[in-house]
Prior knowledge:
By secondary structure, the chain is of the alpha/beta class. It folds into two domains: 5-38 and 79-112 and 260-343, FAD/NAD(P)-binding domain (3-Layer(bba) Sandwich); 120-256, FAD/NAD(P)-binding domain (3-Layer(bba) Sandwich). 33% of the residues lie in helices and 24% in strands. It is built from ten helices and 24 strands. It has a five-stranded parallel β-sheet with strand order 5-2-1-9-20, with helices on one face. Helix 1 (13-25) packs parallel to helix 9. The longest helix is centred in the last third of the chain and has 28 residues, at 366-393. It is globular and about 75 Å long. The protein starts with a strand and ends with a helix. The structure holds flavin-adenine dinucleotide and nicotinamide-adenine-dinucleotide. The site of flavin-adenine dinucleotide (FAD) has 31 residues, from helix 1, strand 2, helix 6 and helix 9. Keywords: FAD, Flavoprotein, Oxidoreductase. Residues 5-320 form the FAD/NAD(P)-binding domain. Belongs to the NADH dehydrogenase family. Its cofactor is FAD. This is NADH dehydrogenase, FAD-containing subunit.
Amino acid sequence: MSTPKILILGAGYGGLLTTLKLQKKLNYNEAEITLVNKHNYHYITTWLHEPAAGTASADHARVNLDQIIDMNKVNFVKGTVQSIQPEEQTVTLESGEVLSYDYLVIGLGSEPETFGIQGLKEHAFSIRSINAVRQIREHIEYMFAKYKNEPERTDYLTFVVGGAGFTGIEFCGELADRVPELCQEFDVDPELVKIYCIEAAPTALPGFDPELVNYAMDVLSRKGIEFKIGTPIKECTENGVLLANGEEIKSKTVVWAAGVRGNSIVEKSGFEVMRGRVKVDEYLRAPGYENVFVVGDCALIFNAEGRPYPPTAQIAVQEGECLGDNLAALIRGEVMQPFVPALQGTLASLGKGEGIGMVGSKKLFGSTAALMKKASDLRYLWKIGGVGLAMKKVRL
Ligand code: FAD
Ligand code: NAD
């Protein structure tokens, strides 16, 4: 029998952890493991709000794949997936190259959910990759520079964040920290800078603990964020946003952080999806395909009450690890174990030294939450790259 081919698409949390588990568990001759990713680096998505605001460099959130993957055991292909043909067991890359597989792992992450709102695709930014956040940072700096040459254009100094979910809240915290630095660098009166965080639901961080939500809003309001809650964004234009209440906010910088959907390649390849995510079985298999597994933001799993788990790095990591074990078991003719998420809690930053968190039933505020978040980052870096990577990357 020929060596089974395992093809992994995407080196994000889900795809990377599957790969790392497989490279650890399997011997060289047991399977041919191929990992395809757009870039030759993994990025720490959970940090991207920092380089987006400019409080950290984009390079800091990058980890070169050859630093963490044994390239003798894993065949790495730097390429962009264009489509998947599950009936033929092949994947086509934008380069035209066609890769075949016996087992496929889809870990292509998410895309911004625009809910069909007009103008967002054309005029809004989103925090989703190293290249995207570099552009946001440069654009913000450019707005300050432009204002100095056109001082009547205060809209250059107005920043709109769409959505007060965790991404919007974390970005607001960083942007508020960056503004004083930018004002000093560009000689701008801080009073002229406006940051609006606009949320459709009746509260920020819908579904999260109300005491922690209030704390977050207090901290961010003190830092200068103006919240508009219960006010959906209805349209985005090149001049700003139009709200459902008829108000218009003039701005040249709209950052859309109002939710995600699974990578559209999955739907375009014919898989059944809900908001771009495949409802997988207990072994993370796509319906109808025994040999196609889905992890991370492309996968949809439900809790005991029938509610979908939110797409998080925490779950993507656990799925990747479980799938790595299961694929090794499959190859060896052993039994797979069902995936059971073990949620450890939620930790979110509100800028330097500030945060909120819920770990078990314990609420965490301020510097304690911020410190716990650093500890959780450290644990992840250690997991993927050992103590060396953890020491190199973590910022206390
Ligand atoms: P990703 O990590 O997004 O990785 C997808 C990979 O696929 C990338 O390497 C990408 O380059 C590659 N790829 C995409 N398309 C193609 C293609 N066509 N061809 C080849 N490669 C491709 N979750 C938490 O649990 N805790 C947090 O604190 C947290 N903070 C966050 C902060 C921010 C600012 C954001 C935006 C998200 C945060 N999340 C957090 C959510 C978390 O980042 C995602 O749930 C997680 O990244 C999903 O992992 P994934 O493996 O599905 O995809
Ligand atoms: P989200 O879906 O969690 O939040 C989006 C927010 O945008 C919601 O509150 C929603 O009501 C709002 N919204 C939707 N349409 C709107 C409109 N038209 N106008 C204004 N507001 C609108 O999305 P997210 O914050 O990008 O998070 C995506 C996933 O990543 C989630 O699962 C989240 O838990 C996870 N995440 C976790 C962390 C963390 O744990 N620290 C940080 C970031 C993201």
